[in-house]
């Protein structure tokens, strides 16, 4: 028995813990449970039966279908799974039920330990309106705005003038930037309120909203706190989370390059006061806005009553395993350290790897992981749920992994993280890795001149790597050899001119791009050479390519998805998915009827004209339809909204005309499905 910080406890923890989550966070929690000798129990939906966290755990139970409401948000099923496997505690991870007071109450009623704060802390801090008013009474500075429960759209619109523009709409429940809408002027407010309410209701089951003044050039600084059951609270320094897109964090680091030691201590103590005000226990994060122009001023935004996605950067600069501390506190142990003992060493930076396509407006992507390589090396850590063969669907958040790097200083951490991303290969699913590397190379990011709007300013000028003629040629040749080599001696032995010693006539093998453009493979008189013609015949770009290039630089990796015959190439961690970039194989060629239809469509539209078909940019669910069949719409007008991977995407008319809507709210749509068409209106006489 030991006595520490006024409490008596032994060294026992739990024997068996259920992890009520999925993906990389479930794997992360299971890793610590395994290190501590605690048996882990995983839960999974039908969509996750083959997921890595299921294989990693000591035991696993199915809890329902893919839909979160029927599985990972099903309190009864999760508590039942914990009782059935004789668990003593449930670790909620982050997201899903991690900040749900009803879940914590259900655990307590079932005799299970909820690895998180008490119900009162969850209730107060889980409501952004209530939490903002609460901490203000304890001397924590808050952002100007209106935060009252139960305000209608009309009341919010009436109050917006006093708040001032630009302003920010925020849901009172939930987090992660979901439902937050920036509003520049009064005419934008009604539509933004409708969107924010819909997202809040869908994501959190609560559509209460409030308004805050939008602070220009803000920096997002958050403080990690630990608190035990005996009134002891400490902070572990701050994290800089200013690199965000649409209020979703992308790259995080610890410590912040902005704060001096005096401000670091003041903001840390403010975070501790906020935690102590609700008798907090466990690991939590208090988030602040800090003005770039006045770095010694900070304003409370919210408290996240759970582990954060970005917690690894704090672990790497403090050497403290936050999951272990959560478990120790939940088991009744006091804090092992007091504030003076907490020391920050070096610098750590984390990048979130998402299944998304930055070139297509960061739309979520899906697919099967064909080839996987994850980085290793000094100062490099990867928290990942990825395994080769894994199918990434659209049921859940698109984050796949986190790549974290530590260095003795910020410059070394940046260099190591960039190198680690370059060594990351996720072949088969489009990712944001190239985008992350472009961000890390940005001059302002390198200098630490950050704010939450930086990414939005940079994205329009980002140039993503394209598949050049050499790459396309190599891919075409590889595809050809694969197709003709199966079950035969290979294409070079075919009696069609593919042989040494010259040929009497060139061999033409036409392929088609995904857009119906012709890719012609002409084989000349040498078995190693070919001419690739890319594009339409009247604008063709002949290229000389060599099949031996496949055995060239090791940085290129080419593989074939046998089901769809689509090439995906990775170089230096940057994906070239030729199926989306315009190169996929269709053998045999389209029928004459299909070719005629394509030609007629091309004739009827001038080059560069807008397409009358409105297609789903990703698989998802239709959540709103703004117009009806027969309506006259303007170019740029929103027609409908599709939700995928917890994000909404508005589909707009590309030209003016009469619209035909082919879907209704609740419909599931597939990638590139036509959901609406627009017929150009006859000109008025």
What is the structural class? alpha+beta
Number of strands: 40
Instruction: Tell me the β content.
Output: 25-35%
Task: Indicate the radius of gyration in whole angstroms.
Answer: 28 Å
Give the helix tally: 18
Shape: globular
Mean pLDDT: 80
Question: How is the main sheet built?
Answer: 8 strands, antiparallel
Distance between the termini: 93 Å
Low-pLDDT parts are 1-9, 477-569, 577-592
Enumerate the strands of the largest sheet in spatial order, edge to edge or round the barrel. Answer: 16-15-12-13-14-17-24-22
Summarize the structure in words.
Helix content is 26%, strand content 29%. With 685 residues, it is an alpha+beta fold. An 8-stranded antiparallel β-sheet has the order 16-15-12-13-14-17-24-22. A 5-stranded parallel β-sheet has the order 5-4-3-6-7. It is globular. The termini are far apart. The relative contact order is 0.08.
Outline the secondary-structure elements.
Layout: E1 2-4, E2 7-9, E3 16-19, H1 23-35, E4 39-45, H2 52-56, E5 59-64, H3 75-84, E6 89-91, H4 101-109, E7 113-114, H5 119-125, H6 128-136, E8 145-146, H7 153-163, E9 167-171, E10 181-183, H8 189-204, E11 209-213, E12 218-227, E13 233-245, E14 248-254, H9 261-276, E15 282-291, E16 298-304, H10 311-318, H11 322-330, E17 347-354, E18 356-357, E19 363-364, E20 367-368, E21 371-373, E22 380-384, E23 391-392, E24 399-407, H12 410-422, E25 425-427, H13 433-441, H14 443-447, H15 454-458, H16 469-485, E26 507-512, E27 518-523, E28 529-534, E29 541-546, E30 557-560, E31 567-571, E32 574-577, H17 578-581, H18 592-604, E33 613-615, E34 620-625, E35 632-633, E36 638-644, E37 647-652, E38 657-661, E39 668-669, E40 674-679
Parallel strand pairs: 3-4, 3-6, 4-5, 6-7
Antiparallel strand pairs: 1-2, 8-11, 9-10, 9-11, 12-13, 12-15, 13-14, 14-17, 15-16, 17-24, 18-19, 20-23, 21-25, 22-24, 26-27, 27-28, 28-29, 30-31, 31-32, 33-40, 34-36, 34-39, 35-38, 36-37, 38-40
Helix pairs in contact: 4-5, 12-13
